[in-house]
Amino acid sequence: MDPALKSILSTVLNFDNFRLAPQLTAQAESALVRPNPKLKQALATSAANGLPPISVSPISGQYLTILARAMGAKSVLEVGTLGGYSAICLAEAGAKVTSIEISPKHREVALENVKGLDVEVLLGSGIEVMSKLAAEGRQFDMVFIDAEFEDHWEQFDWAVKLTRPNGCIFLDDVVGAMFKHGYNGEETDSILTQIGKDERVMATLMPTVASHPMLPTPVFNGFIICTVL
Questions:
Q1: How far apart are CA 95 and CA 108, in angstroms?
Q2: What's the Cα-to-Cα distance from 139 to each of 54, 134, 163, 195, 214, rounded to whole Å?
Q3: pLDDT per residue over 32-57, tens digit each?
Q4: Residues 71, 85: Cα–Cα separation, whole Å
Q5: pTM higher than 0.90 for the full model?
Q6: Which distant-in-sequence residues (6+ apart) come within 8 Å of 50 by Cβ?
Q7: What 8-state DSSP symbol labels residue 222?
Q8: Which residues neighbour 137 within 8 Å (Cβ) at sequence distance 6 or greater?
Q9: Quick one: which of 94, 222, 109, 224 has its CA closest to 155?
Q10: Which of 77, 83, 203, 220 could disulfide-link to 226, CB 3.0 to 4.6 Å?
Q11: Where are the alpha helices (DSSP H) in the chain?
């Protein structure tokens, strides 16, 4: 191998780079994330009401805004409202957001946070509410799933039914859920294989390195994004 190329690869592929993820993420947020008083207030209100600090990160929220803008989404279904942070990101992209939240307390806080935006927050479990929306004939341009790990496949299945052709489904925390369920590197049946066999969609996995104030070290995670055929 060419010595110059070998030197470049050894620098770029150095595993110690992984440990710099928190610093790089913080710098990216400082450089790229637009100031947003409504999002800042939503975090403050959520914290004041005792909600867990597990909203999507600012840089991930801005990614959702960019994705919704890029596809021209006018209707978005969200599973897992929490305090409404990601719902705000999606609504500010110009979409009407229908968000599902199982906790009455979280729903009340979210409703306060999303005031003034085209957001409805429905109370109930993801699968229960999604089945009702399907029975009503509702269809969405985009579905964002950021809820309990246990129901990923069932939620994804309903999401496909609720997404228009060529619409987008974003299933968050897929890799984290696989680790929670005991993934050890061996090829076994998983959410990846289930979605891979689903001929209704074209999907891919986007691996990520997640940094969060609650986490002592960076975490290997990833999301599935797909389009409905």
A1: 21
A2: 28, 8, 5, 20, 36
A3: 999 999 999 999 999 999 999 999 99
A4: 20
A5: yes
A6: none
A7: E
A8: none
A9: 224
A10: 203
A11: 3-12, 21-32, 37-48, 58-70, 85-91, 104-113, 126-135, 152-162, 174-180, 191-196
pLDDT tens digit sequence for 124-145: 999 999 999 999 999 999 999 9
Residue whose entry in the numeric block shows the structure tokens 């003034």: 116
The H or E element containing residue 95 is none
Q: What are phi and psi of 35, to 5 degrees?
A: -60, 135
Residue from 142, 138, 84 nearest 116 by CA: 84
pLDDT digits (tens, 9 = 90+) for 173-221: 999 999 988 888 888 889 999 999 999 999 999 999 988 777 778 889 9
Query: Angle at Cα 164 formed by Cα 158 and Cα 168, nearest 5°?
Result: 80
Could you give the dihedral angle defined by the CA atoms of residues 41, 47, 53 and 54, in that order, rounded to the nearest 10 degrees? -60
CA distance 144 to 77: 6
